[in-house]
């Protein structure tokens, strides 16, 4: 390790970094390193060799009182009760889950059958929708003489235009049929009148 570090150029490393790179313990250099949290980190990293007095890392009476007031720790009795309650809750949750699994297992066959029925219905519906779309595409193509993409925003407009035209033609055909029936009635009446005049 020392040989590898020695071969490195010394230009980029200051004395502190060189000591760290060589595996040594750097001396206390900055003010923040005198604070308790930094001393704790130093002791945690380098151990007894760090030269940190572990007595200064121990919490003071004020800090202990603050920790106690925040209730960041529990007494052994409280912890045991909490563990017991947690265990009971976990057992109850597990029992409920097993009951639910049993209930679901009893309904499994019926639910599976229902699922397959719904799936078959949805497939039939999709097939019908596809056929309906193809029919609309064919109608538009026959009416306008060219193929139109159903995703095209003009498609719905063209389909509506074609439907309006078909409705108009049907209406005209009905009116024509009515007129034809009226003519037949009138001609039949005229013929009856002529026959009655001839007989009289």
Order of helices and strands: HHHHHHH
Q: State the shape.
A: elongated
Strand content: under 5%
Mean pLDDT: 82
Number of helices: 7
Number of strand elements: 0
Separation of the first and last Cα atoms: 143 Å
Q: Any low-confidence stretches, pLDDT <50, length ≥5?
A: 1-5
Percent range of helical residues: over 70%
Largest beta-sheet characterization: none
Question: Radius of gyration in whole Å, from Cα?
Answer: 48 Å
Number of domains: 3
Structural class call reads mainly alpha
Kindly describe this structure.
This protein has seven helices and no strands. It is mainly alpha-helical and 200 residues long. It folds into three domains: 15-70, no CATH class; 74-144; 148-188. Helix 6 (108-144) crosses helix 7. It starts with a helix and ends with a helix.
What's the structural blueprint in terms of helices and strands?
Layout: H1 2-7, H2 15-21, H3 36-46, H4 61-70, H5 76-106, H6 108-144, H7 153-199
Helix pairs in contact: 6-7
Region (Disordered): 176-200
Protein name: Large ribosomal subunit protein mL64
Biased composition (Basic residues): 176-185
Briefly summarize what is shown:
With 200 residues, the chain is mainly α. 74% of the residues lie in helices and 0% in strands.
Tag the structure with descriptive keywords.
200 residues; mainly alpha; ribosomal protein; cell cycle
């Amino acid at each position: 390790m020392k040989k590898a570090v020695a071969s490195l150029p010394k230009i980029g490393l200051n004395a502190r970094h060189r000591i760290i790179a060589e595996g040594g313990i750097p001396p206390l250099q900055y003010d923040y390193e005198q604070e308790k949290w930094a001393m704790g980190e130093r002791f945690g990293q380098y151990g007894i060799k760090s030269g940190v007095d572990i007595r200064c890392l121990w919490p003071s009476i004020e800090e202990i009182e603050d920790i106690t007031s925040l209730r960041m720790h529990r007494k052994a009795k409280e912890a045991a009760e909490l563990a017991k309650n947690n265990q009971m809750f976990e057992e109850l949750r597990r029992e409920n889950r097993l009951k639910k699994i049993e209930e679901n297992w009893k309904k499994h066959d019926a639910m599976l059958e229902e699922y397959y029925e719904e799936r078959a219905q949805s497939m039939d519906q999709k097939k019908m929708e596809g056929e309906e779309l193809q029919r609309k595409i064919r109608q538009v193509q026959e009416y306008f003489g060219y193929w139109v993409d159903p995703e095209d925003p003009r498609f719905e407009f063209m389909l509506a235009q074609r439907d309006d035209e078909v409705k108009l033609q049907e209406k005209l055909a009905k009116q024509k049929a009515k007129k034809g029936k009226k003519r037949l009635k009138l001609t039949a009446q005229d013929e009856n009148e002529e026959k009655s005049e001839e007989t009289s």
